[in-house]
Amino acid sequence: MFKKPKRKVHRVFIHCSASDRPEHDNIETIRQWHLARGFSDVGYHYFIRKDGTLQMGRSLEKIPAAQKGHNRHTIAICLHGLKIEKFTDAQKKTLLELCRTIDAAYDSISFHGHCEVSAKACPVIDYRTVLDLDMYGSLGRKTDALENITQKRPEALPELRLGSRGEAVAYLQQLLFIRTDGIFGPQTSRAVKAFKKAHDLYPSDIVKSYVWRLLMENETHSP
């Protein structure tokens, strides 16, 4: 049920509906709540019912109305539920499958809870464990990325570029001696270009295995 939208998407946000009542377990009820609040449509792109059924909300081509101040370039997913013990394995399985599908459609995208940008306990489930997120919101890559970094395997580390996120980006930033936030932004781009220029390489900001190897050798020979 996912078709990559034409608009830019950088982040996915997870929500919960704050209700366990069976009559609220459907996208149409959520739509009516949001319309009553003056929304043009339901604010979420997806809704996951207790039985794991995935329902479509607003069009993926439209910006969500889900996390105030953080809606642009995002996709919003809501799970029906309030009490943590009442969320089902079927819901979590559907969430993981959907997020894996979304992740596969993008070179770089991160996953977050509404609580990360709002003073709300939403979603109440442990979404980080369900999705196996690293500290930067990268999906299901924590173990492999850390293992490759620890073993100093440049050929196994991912290709990075502007917009990439995650543990590998944080490691790249450490090797470049710049601020470590796990986000390949303009500062990291400039640092990569400068490093490559200093080593007589074409100064693009793309980091491939040969660049990883040079960075690691530079670290080894640093005083």
Rg, please?
Answer: 20 Å
Q: Based on CA inertia axes, which overall geometry fits?
A: elongated
Q: Which runs of at least 5 residues are low in confidence (pLDDT < 50)?
A: none
Q: Could you say which structural class the secondary elements and strand pairing correspond to?
A: alpha/beta
- Summarize model confidence as the mean pLDDT: 90
By DSSP, the count of extended strands is 5
Order of helices and strands: EHEEEHEHHHHH
Helix content: 25-40%
Largest sheet: 5 strands, mixed
| Spatial strand order of the main sheet | 3-2-4-1-5
Q: What name does CATH use for the topology of the largest domain?
A: Lysozyme-like
N→C terminal distance: 53 Å
Number of helices: 7
Question: What does this molecule look like?
Answer:
This protein has 2 domains: 11-131, Lysozyme-like; 142-221, Muramoyl-pentapeptide Carboxypeptidase, domain 1 (Orthogonal Bundle). Strand 2 (46-48) and strand 3 (54-56) form a beta hairpin. The radius of gyration is 20 Å and the shape is elongated. 36% of the residues are buried. It is built from 7 helices and 5 strands, in the order βαβββαβααααα. The chain has a 5-stranded mixed β-sheet. The chain has helices spanning 27-36, 89-104, 127-131, 142-150, 167-176, 186-198, 209-221, and strands spanning 11-16, 46-48, 54-56, 74-79, 110-113. The chain is α/β, with parallel strands linked by helices.
Element layout with pairings:
Layout: E1 11-16, H1 27-36, E2 46-48, E3 54-56, E4 74-79, H2 89-104, E5 110-113, H3 127-131, H4 142-150, H5 167-176, H6 186-198, H7 209-221
Parallel strand pairs: 1-4, 1-5, 2-4
Antiparallel strand pairs: 2-3
